[in-house]
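Two proteins were folded this term; both appear here.
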Amino acid sequence: MLKKLRELEEEDPQLHIVWDEQLGEIHAMLMGDVQIEILKRLIWERFHVAVDFGTGNIVYKETIAAPVEGVGHFEPLRHYAEVHLLLEPGEQGSGMQFFTACSEDVLDRNWQRLILTHLEEKEHRGVLTGAPITDMQITLLTGRAHQKHTEGGDFRQATYRAIRQGLKKAQNVLLEPYYEFRLEVPVEVVGRAMNDIQKMQGTLLPMETEENTAILKGKAPVSTMRDYQKEVVSYTRGMGRLFCSLKGYEPCKNQDEIVEQIGYDSERDLDNPTGSVFCAHGAGFVVPWYEVEEYMHLDTGIMAEFEDDLSEEDWEDAASGSGNPASGDDTAQSARNSARSGAGSTGTARNTSGSGSRAGSGYQPPESAYRGSYEDDKELQAIFERTFGPVKRDRVSSYKKVVSALSYSGSSSSAKKDQEEYLLVDGYNIIFAWPELKELADADVRAAQTKLMDVLSNYQGYKKCTLILVFDAYKVEGHQEEVLTYHNIHVVYTKEAETADQYIEKTVHKIGRQHQVTVATSDGLEQIIIMGQGASRISARGLKEEIEETRKQLRQEWHQHRQSSHTYLFDHADAETAKLMEEVRLGKKKL
């Protein structure tokens, strides 16, 4: 029978047939009684087989609420592979996205590609109900292979186990499908209709009316609304109409009840194990998921150091060494959509935090920049070198004038090269990290952009560094990279399909080893990437503190200048004119 249904599936793209091996059942994904009756009649006409369908089940999905690292290790005798993955929540409806942040010096490119293939080849199951996972970003952090014993299948096992181990540690969220509906009923029964929608845990938009008909629009869970058409026909005596379309997946409001009802046990799912396999004394043994980190051979340190932007009231806690993982990207992303007409965007940014200082004139990150990200730069460097190898900072290679898409004119003399310093700022990351800018962005993102540009322009005037402010525009269809000059700073709007982080990483890769480059943004994963390119880091909070310190210095210099009640001509003359007038005063020259 399955083979016959597959033939129908190929003919009708709206029909989806699934074979459940565990239950030995054929599942058909259908929308309502009408499609069920059509399918039953079609099967009878084509194959002369009478079929019946049981009560349909809701197709749930799962995601996570906060970033987590998953570790998978597969080492039975004469086999070896270890994989570390970073699991992050994605945008609603974005599906599964896979990336790599692993150096090829640590794990060869062919193994990295194999791991990404294993991530994409399978529909991975969650640990709440065994439903497919979605709306997640999975990044390969690091991995290890054995020169003699590693085979392709080893990384498949390690990758699958890394995902499951990460999901067991994560804050899992159950998602259920939602209908977007339009309900047309007579005005006299609109109260009954609105009451029914509330009972179904739905939400309503403002009601519309056309003559004697009330029109209700909104959304509601499929689980509560799938049989509502029959009730509408009944209480409206055939005068009501209900139109439903699948809106997408949203968090389930009765998650605990559904999980208990399904009764899925992730520990008994032998096809999707949560633990890892290690080897000792010539024999392999299974380690449960909650003990894997005690046996693992690599340590990225990413979760121990992972820290997102903190709100103003959390800054004191951050300064004392405590940190809370935050997940406020959705707010930032929704505001970015309207950030700039023609170049506004939304982004899911991986950003950096932390700071570093360099010798020389120009931009010098403050000591306070170390707080609010990593407490100790040496500790971060040790983590990086332990995972990816030593950082090589080549300051002798040839000078490059081109900085990504920006071209800066100027002398290529070695003196200028030694002094030239760059500060790259992730615009939206800073906006949503500074409370006053975030409050302004809630009302008008463009105004927040302009305010930040003014603040950085004043700051650059004092520090005299090359300052590049980068804004996401990667979701603006057909947008080309745009570089603007705002007073004394450069403002970049990225091209379509390029995030601010990608632009910053690309730029740092080109100039990070020839110039003194500092990146201002806040995200644990990007910390490691930026440091690997030879750049320094400063958190959003550290940049704010340094700007405040700069303002204080300017005020002090201004007050010191005003202490004298006398005004001298030479105070406002340039150095050459002042020198000439001094020689005239001393009689050395004549005008």
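Next, the second protein.
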Amino acid sequence: MNAILIKLFATALTLSQVTTRPDAVRTQFDPATDGPEVVRLLRDGCAHMRKAFDIEDINLDELITTAMEDPSSVAGPSAPKILHGLDLNELNTSYKQFCKAENPPNSPFDAKAVIEFYDNATKDLPSAEALRDKALPGMTRILDGAGKPFAEASEPNGRRIVVPITTVPTLVQKAFIAAEDKRFESHHGIDERGVIRAFIGNLASPGRPAGGSTITQQVVKNLSVGDDVTYERKIREMIVASRLERILTKPQILGLYLNGIYLGRGAYGIEMAAESYFGKPVGQLTLPEAALLAGMPKGPNFYSPDKYPDRARERRAYVLARLKEEGTITEAEMNAAIKADLGLKPIETARRDSGFYLADFLNREARTFAGVDSLTSGSMTVRSAINAGLQRAVEEALQDGLANYERATGRQTYTGPELNLADSVRRIQAATPAPEGSPQAAPGVTGARSDAVKPDAKTLKAEKAAAAPAPKPAWLRALESARPVLYDVRWPMAVVLETGRGAVRVGLADGRIASLDPGIARGRLQPYDVVRVKLSGGKGGLRAQIRVRPTVQGAALVLENQTGRILAMAGGFSYPLSQLNRVTQTVRQPGSTLKPLTYLAALNAGLQPNTLVLDSPVTLPPIGAAGDSWSPKNYEGGGSGPTTLRRGLEFSKNLVTARLLQGGIAPKAPASLKRVCDIALEAQIYAECEPYYPFVLGAQPVRMLDLAGFYAAVANEGARPAPYALESVERDGKALYTHAAREPVRIGSADRVAFYQLKTMLQGVTQHGTAAALAKFSPYVAGKTGTSENENDAWFAGLTNEITVVVWVGYDNADGSRKTLGRGQTGGHVSVPIASAILQAAWANGVAKTPLRGPSSEARPFIADMAVDPRSGVRVAGGGFLEHFRTSGDGKMADTQYRLVPRETLYAMRPDAEDGDLNGGEDGASVTGDYYGNMTGERARPDLLDPFGERPAAPRSRRAQGDLDPYGQDPYRDSYKPWPGQTTRTPFGDDEVRRPRRRDPDYLFGEDPGY
């Protein structure tokens, strides 16, 4: 039996069942025994078809005879591919056998072959019930914190907004029914007349084949069985469509259809199409607009009004004529609609280029809190906390910072262009007709044309062409249509146009030409390569510098302190390169950004910021019988002797941090460690704490999001917010989830006074410590740098009154390797510049810029501000540095300055200097030092007095202010001003001129105000 005939009979068997016995369709037959049953079903089906055509007074025999008069139309080269090889005689014989009750002796029919094909086609048939309960994937709109559109989330082929059928106007419904399925209201899923008409039409007309599918069949095809152009798909489609009609109403089926179909411009469903083409919801469509969209399902590309407006008008006129035939509209309405302009709004070509990590995070939050499978499981409206302008700026700052690090360290590698447009340019050039030459002006005619001169049509056409704007060059058109690989990278794309020995020239997306410094790509660029650049102006014109994607990674987060709202998040350099969100999905060693926990515990235990601690080697005893002792080291390897608690944090001294465990928090080191761990657990930095000493130096990996919550708590005097980005989720106007406003939870392991003192000490870090690159912002910013062992991770965590900013830079170590950033590439050197750009962007995008607040009304009664020498911590009568001391509430203050380093120890450690002078600087300059080994004299740098007052920024050294923790910072690279003999500004704002005073080298008991 002919293969095509087998498929046709299997399809006919399906059609016979769904039209004559839709409630009892068999999907499997026995090839050995069910042959007679199949013959009976085929004959019943043919009888049903003839009756159906008789209703319309159509002679089916004549239709078939007419179709078969020209055999070449079926078997010839122009026939549809699915009909090639069909024997017309066999087809005609089969028709007589099953439709005219004849028993021809040469029947080609083989029941066994037909059954086998049919049984195979109906295996694993999808259920109609699945369609009844199917939730169409939809496009979710994500709004930013200001309620403005920020992003869309949809699955491939799922950019739709699902609307109830009741919101679709009757006119729109009837337009689609008239265009696609005029008997929709009367058939039961399969329009047998439509199927036979399509089959016969395809035999007689070898053009574009017709399908004869009903709206119900199209629903099944689009949402269930797929769109393969095969007999198997057609068989499955008809059976499922027949069953769907039994469990859904016509309006429900039409709703699935109108929400499911593709209508061009990337729009699925009638609502998305109405907005894409006309900028309005479906409920506001006019008659011409509804007819235009109703004509699109037949071929969204073929009838595209953007590409083929004439075809679109013709198709619209057909739909309008059908509506008039059905009596839905009048002839006058039809004629007016035919003449109407297409009325399209411009195509939106802008592509989303930011917030991809944040959108993923919102999706995870929606699954957790709103109970939705994903943001693409339906059409929803998601309101987020995102500050859109800040989000873009954070991504740009991180990308620039990572690239600058690699350029500065010589680690850049050029792996080739992002794209090459040579093929696209050639195609565009080949498809662009050569411009016609402009005709010469008529002799004696200049300026305006005389009314007496009648130009011919050719002249008018040439003049019109000359007046039109110059066509875009092929490279620019190719660039406009290119889809960048790194679609979220802020650096503009540029097309290489010239690569001669001189300057390389590139074209930009706005049509400008720039001179490119190829840098690391010198000699490797080819014509029409697309590269990323950084632009700058100059006397020589527009200049560009190449930018290559870095291999180093990073992450950044901006958190609102009081509410916990995530304002911006960058989980990596570029989302297309890696979807791993390093803010929420990875843990890394925080290094010294965790040290404030230990200092907080010490302050809460009663130590004051001026308490002296020995910056010298220490060995802590084992924890438990099986533990090991611990002997940490500073970054530079040595120590600077006695130093204040404040300076130990400002310059990130490991030895100072370790010694706080030895009596500074609890009498014994293990008990001190436990108290630090308790704060870490209550602050929700960790779910569990590793009981080993290196924990206090940041050895236990942490998640950036959790670390940010702790620093926000420091800004809030101990109240930790719960970070979140999802404000609400709505579907069909109903709220699925709304974030309940919650007050930050107070961390009870430390009081407000300790948190406030810690904040002032962290401000010293940005003023003159390891984050001194932020000195000009120190009135507004406090923070801490951090660098893990071997410079594998570089951190900065900073806070203002309003926000917390955390930045991490490092290499991914998923392959098990740990790659260092390089000697000296610390948090202060790598991460602080990125944080600086983010802070400035925050202030430029609506975040208030306010001086750091003083103590709260609850903490103020327990704090006394007193002037101290900034190095020794000794109280002074006037001037000095305004330190913040804990009191008992009645004004009494516990003096803990010598609790950890007794005076006797200081005496034994005094420098052996003659006449009180310490001379011998390397450059010959006079260098004096106090008894703590801290530099004073001509080489000392100016400092600020009140850490919360308005004052000038401390000057920076010409050498980079790198953060050298977790093992400490060069103690001589500070910016404290030598107080004796200087004009200083007192805490009360008046200037005081102090006389030079003689210092006795043996005086070890503080600065007596009466001295």
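The CA atoms of residues 220 and 620 lie 73 Å apart. The two ends are 120 Å apart (CA to CA). These notes refer to the second protein only.
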